[in-house]
């Protein structure tokens, strides 16, 4: 082998360097393309011999091999590199095959042992093992767990009472502290966020002794069973989930497959029931633990999804769970959900919310309806079957959320035909709407990155990061107020008049009190929903176009139209931004100048435009980041939803509308106007408000012709 690595020059009979000529011939053989020819079998055989003796030759050895085989050193280098890589891959493949075979063998042995355990019999009586002993053991474990939870609740109550002079009960404050968008800039208030998880404990402990509520053990059992079903739905696709024929994208439950795995009877006592189901996933920029805390605080959860949830509160805390990760926490809750239209009735649920940490980086939040009262007082019209989300931490700091919505409904509760198809196809309350709103709020949170100003922000009025933060806070409060205003349920607003006008326009007038730093004020809310033949994007562009604003908004005159003086953009969607408008020719007196703050955003249901007038002085307070509770807001707004038809929806897995309007295009628009009043409403004022709303609707239709 030593001779193989020796080097010597070979001179031909005519004195020429034979080795140099061979090198030149190899270079000519490569051609103009520069592609190397394959090694000869003799060269490969020699290289294989060298590789067995020395897999990693040094530079000197590679040079000797190259001279002996009439190759270049770099070719030798690359051949040995490729050979080592190939050998390593072959070795790993052999190891993987051996592991697969061993794994299969272990699985088969485990399967055989499990089957044998199912048929094992008692040695004394010859029967299958008695189940009563296991049941009694489980009951004893539940009783011990309940006793431990009661002790933890009592300790927490004493701790909270001793450390809190005044319990904070404002859900808005809880949301702002958790989301980092509080009205105050005092850093000391950050500590209040740490107690938000246990804040509702002293307020709800009194309900635990109510004799009319079913035992906690029964609720815990229902929550655990629902969690098991939800995990199956979250981690399984086909055959449980199929694509909707309406859009070939939305995942819905295959009814036969679901009922075969989870047989049950209808839970709503009605002559006509139907089910809605949907599934989706999305990646959001919120940490998993922070998201879990938001879901387990009803006040924060309601304001996190303010466009969906109108009311939410805790009825009873069934299980507190661990303080570190909330695993094991069970809440008995009530929630109302809405679509922000007076034509769509809200959905009310009494349900259990159960949080469990599956692994170090995975949580599951389970919701399931329950009749928690021993004596039934009202028949529910909506029932939440096991639903919820899987929260999974990702390596890049983001969170993957997989969502399942599954409800049973009383179809005798009619939705006005204008929105019937939107509701029946699952667009109004489906999983994608929840995920879309969660994604929007996560982008809202990321807008508070210090000194982050997007490149597409315009205007110098909100150039400072503190000013942007104040504007985003104020818009969040404006949107929350708008959603509460448009909640046309029988509770919360005093209904004054409801009437139906021609062309399917419904008008609901309500009077409500406005709470602000300047005391209570009274306002009149008028709302109308109607259909337009124009596509959603055309309608949205019409409303956000400042040049066309005076055509429909009574705040502005066409002789002095508004101009956009500043904009704050959201990183998620180009149609998500906050704008400031003022008159093209401002009034000479600053106190008479009108500034409109407006937020536009898009989610799965449609597009939203919410706006409110604001005084110039209050705008300065906002931009300086001062306390925003003294800023008065009187929001109005518009929601736009794409009109759909269920004519082609499959009856196998989806609900169909009993009436089809024959429209597959167009938009459903709801406009809500809020007018401040100084006294009680009289008939003349209501007629004026009625005329104003009708005029606005007609202007919108004329502007979109």
Keywords:
3 domains; 8-stranded antiparallel beta sheet; Alpha-D-Glucose-1,6-Bisphosphate, Chain A, domain 4; disordered N terminus; 705 residues; Arc Repressor Mutant, subunit A; alpha+beta; 9-stranded antiparallel beta sheet; 19 strands
Describe this structure in words.
With 705 residues, the chain is of the alpha+beta class. The chain folds into 3 domains: 2-84, Orthogonal Bundle (Arc Repressor Mutant, subunit A); 211-446, Alpha-D-Glucose-1,6-Bisphosphate, Chain A, domain 4 (2-Layer Sandwich); 465-647 and 663-703, START domain (Alpha-D-Glucose-1,6-Bisphosphate, Chain A, domain 4, 2-Layer Sandwich), CATH 3.30.530.20. The protein is built from 18 helices and 19 strands. It has helices at 2-5, 18-29, 41-53, 59-69, 73-118, 132-163, 171-179, 201-204, 216-235, 255-261, 288-295, 298-304, 417-424, 431-446, 465-485, 536-544, 616-623, 683-703; strands at residues 241-243, 251-253, 273-284, 309-319, 330-337, 347-359, 362-369, 382-384, 387-393, 399-410, 494-500, 506-514, 521-532, 562-569, 577-583, 595-602, 606-614, 636-642, 667-677. The strands form 3 sheets. Strands 11-12-13-19-18-17-16-15-14 form a 9-stranded antiparallel beta sheet, sandwiched between helices. Helix 4 (59-69) crosses helix 5 (73-118) and helix 7 (171-179) packs across helix 12 (298-304). The longest helix is centred in the N-terminal third of the chain and has 46 residues, at 73-118. Residues 1-19, 27-34, 163-209, 490-497 and 646-663 have low confidence and may be disordered. Keywords: Coiled coil, DNA-binding, Homeobox, Nucleus, Transcription, Transcription regulation. Residues 1-39 are annotated as: Disordered.
């Amino acid at each position: 082998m030593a001779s193989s690595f020796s080097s010597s020059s070979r001179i031909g009979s005519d004195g020429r360097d034979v080795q140099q000529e061979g090198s030149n011939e190899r270079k000519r053989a490569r051609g103009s393309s520069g592609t190397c020819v394959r090694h000869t079998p003799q060269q490969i055989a020699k290289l294989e011999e060298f590789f067995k003796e020395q897999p990693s030759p040094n530079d000197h050895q590679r040079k000797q091999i190259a001279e002996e085989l009439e190759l270049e050193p770099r070719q030798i280098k690359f051949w040995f590199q490729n050979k080592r890589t190939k050998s390593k891959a072959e070795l790993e493949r052999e190891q993987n095959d051996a592991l697969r075979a061993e794994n299969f063998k272990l699985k088969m042995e485990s399967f055989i042992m499990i089957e044998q355990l199912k048929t094992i019999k008692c040695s004394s009586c010859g029967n299958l093992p008695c189940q009563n002993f296991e049941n009694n053991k489980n009951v004893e474990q539940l009783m011990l767990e309940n006793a431990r939870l009661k002790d933890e609740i009592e300790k927490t109550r004493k701790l909270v009472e001793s450390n809190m002079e005044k319990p904070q009960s404002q859900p808005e404050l809880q949301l702002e502290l958790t989301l980092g968008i509080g009205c105050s800039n005092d850093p000391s208030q950050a500590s209040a966020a740490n107690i938000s998880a246990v804040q509702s404990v002293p307020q709800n402990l009194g309900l635990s002794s109510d004799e009319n509520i079913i035992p906690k053990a029964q609720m815990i059992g229902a929550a655990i069973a629902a969690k098991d079903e939800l995990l199956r739905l979250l981690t399984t696709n086909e055959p449980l989930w199929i694509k909707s024929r309406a859009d070939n994208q939305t995942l819905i439950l295959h009814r036969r497959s679901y009922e075969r795995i989870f047989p049950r009877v209808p839970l709503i006592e009605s002559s006509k029931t139907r089910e809605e189901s949907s599934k989706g996933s999305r990646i959001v920029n919120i940490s998993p633990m922070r998201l879990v805390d938001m879901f387990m605080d009803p006040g924060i959860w309601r304001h996190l999804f303010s466009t969906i949830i109108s009311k939410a509160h805790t009825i009873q805390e069934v299980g507190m769970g661990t303080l570190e990760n909330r695993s094991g926490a069970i809440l008995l809750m009530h929630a109302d959900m809405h679509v922000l239209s007076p034509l769509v009735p809200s959905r009310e649920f009494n349900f259990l919310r159960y949080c469990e940490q599956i692994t170090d980086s995975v949580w599951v939040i389970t919701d399931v309806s329950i009749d928690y009262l021993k004596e039934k007082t009202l028949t529910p019209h909506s029932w939440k079957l096991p639903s919820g989300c899987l929260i999974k931490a990702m390596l890049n700091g983001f969170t993957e959320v997989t969502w399942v919505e599954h409800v049973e409904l009383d179809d005798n509760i009619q939705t006005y035909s204008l929105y019937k198809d939107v509701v029946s196809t699952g667009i109004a309350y489906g999983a994608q709407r929840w995920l879309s709103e969660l994604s929007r709020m996560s982008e809202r949170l990321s807008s508070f990155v210090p000194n982050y100003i997007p490149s597409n922000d315009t205007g110098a009025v909100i150039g400072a990061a503190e000013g942007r933060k104040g504007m985003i806070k104020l818009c969040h409060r404006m949107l929350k107020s708008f959603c509460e205003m448009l909640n046309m349920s029988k509770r919360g607003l005093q209904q004054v008049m409801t009437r139906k006008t021609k062309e399917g326009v419904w008008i609901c007038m309500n009077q409500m009190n406005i709470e602000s730093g300047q005391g209570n004020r009274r306002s009149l809310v008028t709302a109308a929903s109607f259909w337009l033949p124009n596509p959603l994007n055309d309608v949205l562009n019409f409303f956000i176009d400042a040049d066309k604003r005076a055509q429909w908004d009574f705040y502005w005159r066409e002789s002095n139209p508004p101009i956009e003086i500043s904009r704050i953009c959201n990183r998620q969607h180009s149609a998500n931004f906050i704008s400031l408008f003022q008159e093209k020719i401002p009034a000479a007196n600053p106190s008479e100048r009108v500034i409109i703050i407006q937020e536009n955003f898009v989610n799965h249901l449609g597009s939203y435009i919410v706006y409110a007038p604001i005084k110039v002085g209050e705008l300065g307070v906002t931009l300086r980041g001062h306390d925003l509770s003294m800023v008065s807001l009187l929001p109005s707004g518009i929601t736009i939803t794409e009109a759909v038809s269920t004519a082609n929806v499959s009856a196998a897995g989806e609900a169909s509308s009993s009436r089809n309007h024959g429209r597959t295009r167009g938009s459903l628009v709801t406009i809500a106007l809020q007018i401040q009043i100084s006294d009680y409403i009289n008939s003349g004022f209501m007629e004026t408000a009625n005329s104003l709303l009708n005029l606005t609707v007609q202007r919108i239709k004329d502007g979109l012709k």
